């Protein structure tokens, strides 16, 4: 089966519909499938439920879909960097299901593994556990969490071959590998598209069996969500400490 498509719009052709659930890889702005997000935006689909660690920032990443009001519900663990997200949520325009980050990751992993639910200590006795089954194991309380499985997953990889085998680079690996397994259809954008056999078998993070479509998107701008630098030490006045003037 031919998996490589000429552009992101073509790679998503026939897959998008109103009200669907979409998993979107990335953490902050690291490893996000930016070209595929832009193609979702251009399609005009609405009422989306989006599963993502966060919602990007204003005007970048999933922030683009918030601006166009295409997202009805977010399943996330952190959204603190997006003012439009906060505005829509506080105005009652956007539904959100918050998850502890480890719980979100395991819900996705479990979905990809075919596990319908699991028990975790995280959230017991808090709002996270409200309305959920709590059970005792070995004298400890655990809350039951349902797994997540999407209609579509969009992921970003550093290198992929034409058979769909993917390798992620450093922290851009984040949520991408688990999301690639947890959807009916997964579409990957790759910075470097190579021939089969080029990626060493031990370096393959996502086997090609999980990937249905691929689009080659050469590396673009690498954005930094929050630039943090060390404050420059104040220079000593000339001649201080006996040094040369």
TrEMBL record:
Annotated InterPro entries: 3-oxoacid_CoA-transf_A (IPR012792), CoA_trans_fam_I (IPR004165), NagB/RpiA_transferase-like (IPR037171)
Superkingdom of the organism of origin: Bacteria
UniProt-recorded Gene Ontology molecular function terms: transferase activity
Pfam families registered for this protein in UniProt: CoA_trans
UniProt KW keywords: Transferase
Stored PANTHER family: ACETATE COA-TRANSFERASE SUBUNIT ALPHA, KETOACID-COENZYME A TRANSFERASE
Entry protein name: Succinyl-CoA:3-ketoacid coenzyme A transferase subunit A
Organism of this sequence: Methylobacterium jeotgali
Source organism phylogeny: Bacteria, Pseudomonadati, Pseudomonadota, Alphaproteobacteria, Hyphomicrobiales
Protein's gene: scoA
């Amino acid at each position: 089966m031919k998996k490589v498509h000429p552009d992101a719009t073509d790679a998503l052709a026939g897959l998008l519909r109103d009200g669907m659930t979409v998993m979107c890889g990335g953490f902050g702005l690291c490893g996000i499938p930016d070209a595929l997000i832009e193609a979702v935006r251009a399609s005009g689909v609405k009422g989306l439920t989006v599963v993502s660690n966060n919602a990007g920032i204003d005007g970048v990443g999933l922030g683009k879909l918030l601006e166009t009001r295409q997202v009805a519900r977010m399943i996330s663990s952190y959204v603190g960097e997006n003012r439009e997200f906060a505005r829509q949520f506080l105005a009652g325009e956007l539904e959100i299901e918050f998850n502890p980050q480890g719980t979100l990751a395991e819900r996705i992993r479990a979905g990809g593994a075919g596990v319908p639910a699991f028990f975790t200590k995280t959230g017991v006795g808090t709002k996270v556990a409200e309305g959920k089954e709590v059970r005792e194991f070995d004298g400890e309380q655990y809350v039951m969490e349902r797994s997540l499985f999407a209609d579509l997953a969009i992921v970003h990889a550093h290198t992929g071959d034409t058979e769909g085998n993917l390798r992620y680079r450093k922290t851009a690996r984040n949520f991408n590998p688990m999301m690639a397994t947890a959807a009916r259809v997964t579409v990957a954008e790759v910075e470097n598209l190579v021939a089969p056999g080029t990626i060493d078998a031990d370096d393959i993070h996502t086997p090609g069996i999980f990937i249905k479509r691929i689009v080659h998107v050469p590396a673009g701008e690498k954005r930094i969500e929050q630039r943090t630098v060390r404050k420059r030490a104040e220079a000593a006045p000339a001649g201080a400490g006996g040094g040369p003037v």
